[in-house]
Amino acid sequence: MHSKNAINEFAVFGSPPAFGQPLHVGRPNLGDRARLVERLNDILDRRWLTNDGPYVREFEQRIAELTGAKHAIAVSNGTTGLEIAFRAAGLAGEIIVPSFTFVATVHALHWLGIKPIFCDIDPATHCLDPDRIEALITPRTTGILGVHVWGRPCEIERLQAIADRHGLKLLFDAAHALGCSYRGRKVGQFGLAEIFSFHATKFLNSFEGGAIVTNDDALADKLRLMRNFGFSGYDRIDDAGINGKMHEFSAAAGLTNLESVAEFIADNRRNYESYRDELRSIPGLSLLEYDERERCNYQYVVVEVDEAACQVGRDFLAEVLWAENVLARRYFYPGCHRVEPYRSLYPDASDRLPATESVAERVLLLPTGSTIEAAEIRAICEILRTAVRQGPELTRRLKAQPLRFVNVV
After folding, report:
1. What is residue 24's DSSP assignment?
2. Is 349 helix (H, G, I), strand (E, B) or coil?
3. What ranges in 167-298 are assigned the alpha helix state H?
4. Which of 61, 79, 271, 325 could be bridged to 17 by S-S, CB 3.0 to 4.6 A?
């Protein structure tokens, strides 16, 4: 690593980068490799590769135990899980959803012909603002889809009260929130169903995969039908389904990583605390904090950039970091409502999303996970400290040259 004590030493102006290899926001965590290989060899020996194999069933049981849900239905990925859950729940017409989320949340609705009604977020929590929901409900509204952004749960009780009052179904995109809790109860026990992702970038991954969890017996039966073409027996089909099954290799990876999940969370928490200690002295950079009273996976290190206070914009900081091989991310910029096809379909959506647009312009995620060291965190924060200390000059120089990195973040 190269120290960066002056902006003339920044790679964006021609110096060598601070890091020889890229540091990612979510480089995959890996558990016990030998145990994983043992499981993979067992799969190959028994030649049961997919179709509800023993590792999938075990993984489902472990996820149900971890979340406290009655049923866990493993699926090929989180996006497919969303689509199957929406279809099985009978969602149609219009669904109220935040725009400040990964685009897959909204794509899953759009693919099923459901109209997303974008609702603003609470700028403090980054989750759906319950005070904004009821004004958006129409006779075509069939549900509310909350997103537990950064693993910090939505205001679940208020959302459930709204859903009950209007006869709506409430589901949650819980892709960020495995291992987290709300008022002492584990995420996975709320709404009609919650959907998790085990993508490679999640702190618990199955290479690729997801799960739908629910306490509703009838819904669980329907979910199992729909993820396997509608088959209820060897040659009996009871519903229109798709191929949304998780295969045995993903389940083996998920089980192996579950055995190390406490270590992954401990690593994330250590990193979060290191960033908190380093960033508190840098004006204009605010670390999004987690509620220490609740369970949390500390999966994301989220910084909000106050351009007026630090005298350099979020995008310029991202440009500096990327040049140094620190691949910070502008999640979820610019908001789903400002990307296609939603930008063209709902051109007026931004009028009711001021908090969403403000937060999307401020947020910057920093690298964390089991592969990053404390010395690397200190070096990242030193880059940020130098950038802010010389913010006006850095801004002047970056405005004079084209941005090479930030437009691909």
Report:
1. E
2. helix
3. 217-226, 248-258, 261-279
4. 325
Picking from 299, 363, 366, the residue whose alpha carbon sits closest to that of residue 326 is 366
101 is written with which tokens?
A: 């989320």
Q: Which amino acid is at 282?
A: I
Length of the chain: 409
Judge residue 289's burial from the number of C-beta atoms within 10 Å of its C-beta, 0-12 exposed, 13-18 middle, 19 or more buried. Answer: exposed
The token duo for 214 is 């629910």
Count of helix runs (H) and strand runs (E) in the chain? 14, 14
Domains of the chain: 7-26+261-328+367-408 (3.90.1150.10), 33-258 (3.40.640.10)
Q: Which of 59, 336, 326, 369 is nearest to 203 (CA)?
A: 369
Kindly give the pairing relationship between strand 94-98 and strand 115-119. parallel
User: What type of residue sits at position 32?
Assistant: D
Helix residue ranges per DSSP H, 147-258: 156-166, 217-226, 248-258
- The count of C-alpha atoms lying within 13 angstroms of the C-alpha of 57, restricted to the half-sphere facing its C-beta, is 6
Structure tokens at 233: 């027996």
Q: How far apart are CA 139 and CA 129, in angstroms?
A: 21
**Pair type for strands 141-147 and 94-98:** parallel
**AA identity, residue 3:** S
CB contact at 8 A, 187 and 174: yes
In degrees and rounded to multiples of 5, residue 124 shows phi and psi of -85, -35
**CA distances (Å), 189 to each of 108, 129, 147, 172, 229, in order?**
22, 21, 14, 10, 27
As a whole number of Å, the end-to-end CA separation of the chain is: 22
Distance, in Å, from the CA atom of 278 to the CA atom of 14, rounded to the nearest integer, reads 26
Strands (E) in 288-367, as ranges, are 301-305, 326-327, 363-366
Euclidean distance between CA atoms 384 and 374, whole angstroms: 15
Taking only the tens place, the pLDDT of each residue in 115-145 is: 999 999 999 999 999 999 999 999 999 999 9
In Å, how far are 56, 58, 195, 203, 244 from 52, measured between CA atoms?
6, 10, 19, 24, 11
pLDDT at 9: 95
CB 388 within 8 A of CB 312: yes
Q: Taking all residues of the chain, what is their mean pLDDT, rounded to a whole number?
A: 96
pLDDT confidence band for 409 (50 / 70 / 90): very low
Q: Count CB-CB contacts under 10 A for residue 243.
A: 10
- Nearest residue to 335 (alpha-carbon basis) of 144, 175, 99, 170: 99
